[in-house]
Amino acid sequence: MDYDSVADELYALRPEEFTAARASAMASARTAGDRELAARIGALRKPSLAAWVSNLLVRSSPGEVEPLLRLGEGLRQAHQDLDGAQLRELSRRQHALIRALSLQARQLAKEAGHPIGEGVQREVENTLHAVLADPEAARAWAGARLTKPLDAAVGFPAVAEGARPQRPAPAPAPSRPGRKASEQQRRRLDRARKEAEATERELRGLRDEAAAADRAAGEAKRQVDALQRQVEELTGELERVRSEHQQARFAERTARERARTAGRRVREAGRKAATAADRLERLTSSDA
């Protein structure tokens, strides 16, 4: 037993299972004589519902983690030197991506037995905004051990229509290093755009898969309900047949008992008849 494995196991549980499992892990650590580990486990906080959903997204879709982290890095680098039109396009992609991920998280929560409302979904979206904007938030989210939603107050500033971010006045003749920095910036922007587009395509595919899985689950539920009705009907028929079988066995036992009683009476009557015949024969012989 070690701290990381216990923490990973606890934060992978459903919220209502967390407290009891934490107490059990603490007891196991104490039994093993590791009081320090027991204390560290006891300090682990139960996640809020939004934090649990955010952790669930990381654990259920590990392939989404690294691309999103790379996209956040690219966005933070590219944001410093983009014009208004580029920022608005990048912001549109960012919001579309976060919306898609939050919908995916909502579907995962539903499949895990914890449907969430709009309020919790907004907290998940705020967490994802913080992940893209802040490297510390990104690392915390990727660890899948959040106990509360991340603060989205730290984020990319909005860019008004026609506005441009402030930048130093251009030099009369741009130097070679300036052109090199601009080229690097364009490459970072292209890389961020490609990663955003790839992630959006992947998320569209995941949404299609989730919709197909939801339809399959609905069909499976209908089949289960139909089979359950058949089971109930067959169970009722089985109970009826069992009752009839028990009645038939009772009738059989009763008939056998009556047959045995009748047999005894027949044998007794036979003995009496034989005795009477003997007596009659003796009387007849004496009269003669």
Automatic annotation (TrEMBL):
Q: Which intervals carry biased composition (Basic and acidic residues)?
A: 180-223, 239-271, 278-288
Q: What ranges does the record give for the region Disordered, renumbered to this chain?
A: 159-223, 239-288
UniProt name for this protein: Uncharacterized protein
Q: Which organism is it from?
A: Streptomyces collinus
